[in-house]
Amino acid sequence: MMVVDPPLHKASEDKGEVIRLNQKALVGWVLALAAVNWGLVGVLGVNLVETVLGAGSLLTKVAYGLVGLVGVYKVYLLTTGGKK
Asked: What proportion of the chain, given as a percentage, has pLDDT over 70?
């Protein structure tokens, strides 16, 4: 028997809405983790991204790039009210 995790939120049956809400949750989590990382850098001088992925590595650059893209997307959502 396969067990499926429930979604992070309650949504209607419209699959487009489910994807959009999950996307918003993903954006929130990425930004929250980035904020925690920068808080640790500021307070303790510890960069978890570089510690885990390696300073200057390709994976670190990809992680920073993704955080940057998520940030731009969040600015877009904030300035447009999330309307497409």
From this structure: 71
Q: Is 29 helix (H, G, I), strand (E, B) or coil?
A: helix
CA distance 64 to 6: 30
The pLDDT, as a whole number, for residue 23 is: 85
User: What's the CA gap between 46 and 58, in Å, rounded?
Assistant: 19
Inter-residue contact 54 to 60 (CB < 8 Å):
yes
Integer CA distances (angstroms), 12 to 18, 30, 50, 72, in order: 7, 24, 40, 28
Q: What is the mean pLDDT of residues 19-38?
A: 86
